[in-house]
Amino acid sequence: MPLTAAELVLRATHKARAGLAPSEARIYDDNAYLLIKDALSELAMRAARNSERRPLLMRSFALTFVDGAALITGGSFDGLARDLIRWSLLYDPDDTNQRFPYQFRHHLADLRRNLNSAFGYWALSDSVTAVTRARDVSGDNALTSLNGTGALRAVYIPDFSGNNPLPAGGEFDDWAVQILAEMLVAGRAAPATAKK
User: Fold this and answer.
1) What is the pLDDT of residues 59-81, one digit of tens each?
2) Mutual angle of helices 171-187 and 29-48, in 10-degree steps
3) Residue 181, Cβ neighbours under 10 Å: how many?
4) Nearest to 1 by CA among 148, 132, 144, 170
5) Residue 5 has pLDDT above 90, yes or no
6) SS3 letters for 98-146?
7) Is the pLDDT of residue 3 over 70?
8) For a 10 Å CB count at each end of the chain, is N or C smaller?
């Protein structure tokens, strides 16, 4: 059974309070609920940095390429961890000979450099546009040759909407509880309702 937001808060506040009453520990449920999104973002970051856990927190996002570019916007990209895009894998479903995913480059200018043509490459031209350099294509046509649908397998930020669940198995549940508890202990602020 998937972890709910209420269970996450209950387990994390219990762990963070270490047996003390909420007023003694200065750890309140209201604060925990406010920190859920931050805790799950931190969980995604830690998973992305761990090569064994990263694939467990990845899902596919469909991209439509026109002249080698695709927009990464709209509701279908909810949950995409944009700050962690460098660990994403881009596939061209129309390329039956593709053995490796397109390689991510941090700078768009890198796509114009002399790169191994056995691989396809991609970069972001701005925060929402993926640009590709096709495999086995050289010259000026390399940046505009990909057309059609692509699949971006990327790290996502879990949430409780049902679209981006925590992976099953309990390991990520325990990890989310630990991260939220750490944030609560580090914060030890007054309840959110008391803030002005």
Assistant:
1) 999 999 888 889 998 878 889 99
2) 120
3) 22
4) 170
5) yes
6) CCCCEEECCCHHHHHCCCCCCCCEEEECCCCEEEEECCCCCHHHHHCCC
7) yes
8) C
In degrees, rounded to 5, the angle at the alpha carbon of residue 157 between the alpha carbons of residues 78 and 167 is 115
- Mention every residue, 6+ apart, whose C-beta is less than 8 A from residue 108: 123, 124, 125, 131
The pLDDT score that the predictor gives to residue 28 is 92
pLDDT of residue 166: 87
Q: Is the pLDDT reported for residue 105 higher than 90? A: yes
In the block, tokens 């762990």 appear at: 15
Residues 79, 164 contacting (CB under 8 angstroms): yes
Give the C-alpha separation, 132 to 109, whole Å. 11
